[in-house]
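Subject: Protein record for review, amino acid sequence with backbone structure tokens
Category: Structural biology, sequence-to-fold work with a learned token vocabulary.
Format: Residues in single-letter code; tokens as whole numbers, each standing for a residue.
Body of memo: The sequence and its backbone structure tokens, given next.
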Amino acid sequence: MKNIKLLSLFTLVTLGALFITSCGDTTGDNPTPKPVLNYLAGSEYISQNTSLAANVPFKIAITASHTDNITSFKIIQSLDGSVDVELFDSADIKTKLISEYIFNGTTGENAGTEIYTFTVSDKDGNTTSKSITITNLGNPGLGLDVFEFENDGTTPFRVYNFRGVKSGAYGITIGGNVLSNEPNSDKDIQDSTALAETSNWPARWTSRNGTTFKKVDASAWGSITNDAEIEAAWTSASGAEATFVSVAKGDVYLLNLKNAGDYALVEITDVVSTPGADNNDYVQFKYKKQQ
């Protein structure tokens, strides 16, 4: 058994590490099935068609296996249906298993369609291919502003236990706290505590104006910096919800404000639960939004 690490560099696209475990040659006269090719899951990888802004780095991870030896692994790029460009060709390999290959790419400078096709083949010409289409949204657009404190510049944003006099809601669209007797149309975020839960605060959020939420990887707080990226992230993420359960420190959520295509990014910076049936429990947060 031996491990081989392949590395290839090229314009705009940097290929990651290819870890191959070779188990020797297999010979025989009987036909062999096609190689098996799969994407690796994980929040850091793209594993399905998606949309990204221009000049955005991304990763695609694959594994491949075969009952016979894999003798070729190629990556082909097609831009807007133009002539295919071969980005990588690891010809002359002999291995039954590609345990992990990480493809590091960067979207182009212009809007369009980018298709990346991964193909593995054996010595008899049996091949398996899979493709991912990235819709390049083009110019990154306007930057996002970070909002972290009340008007005094020192008090962090907080949504308190709704069963009390303190502010149990916040309006990102209006940029301020919202009290229980104020319009629901302004409550993008509201603490969701039932009367029976007053002594056992659940740290749960909801919305009263149609705003929906998608939980994303914590790294999104740093990587999403402009309006095109936040829109692309919303399109790529799954599971739009109107209610959070067990909001926790470090969680990051995308918000579609009033479900109207105006987006915000929220990071939970603290969750404080106090004993007893009081109004002092709160979720502390900061957010990004195009001003």
The two ends are 57 Å apart (CA to CA). The chain has two domains: 2-136, 145-289. The chain is about 5% helix and 45% strand.
